[in-house]
Amino acid sequence: MPENRKQQHRLDPRDPLVLDTRELGRRPGSMRRVRLPAPAPEGLGLVDLIGVPVGAELDLDLRLESVMDGVLVSGTVTAPLTGECGRCLEPIHDQLVVVVQELFVYPEGSTDQDEDDEVARMEGDLIDLVPTLRDAVVLALPLTPLCRPDCQGLCATCGERLDDLPPDHSHDTTDARWGALSGLLGPSTTDQEN
Asked: What Å distances lie between residue 115 and 111, 146, 165, CA to CA?
């Protein structure tokens, strides 16, 4: 085997995220709908912020269309999200719906794209959805997940959630950089007490 060819792992047709296209055939224009639940693979999230838990149920609603170069897979994926708010650190439980669309080229097929471009290829009659799902889900995740759009976050001084504190919450703190100037105004109340 030449060194410049990538070695591929063998796809398992029993894997719920591997689609078998034999029933579809290779006649351009033929179409098949696929609606199925599947367990979420690893890597569908942003590190420690938000993501789809491994093994959580994904709801796949896909359309497979045979085209000249391969099989076009399009549709939606609904996934549960868990994480924590980027402002107040409260747990987040939400649902994400992403649109997926990917052309999987037949193994012997060629494309108009350059050799350097990443092209999703079928392995025989099998399609591996994991890379497509990972790209779609991770790109749709918020960089700063919020429990609510108007979340105020945490108090910088005491660390309590600002949403749980009264509106007039404040802390009397003196900036140490201004400490030398306070002596110009005369003795402070603490100095008079001593």
From this structure: 9, 41, 58
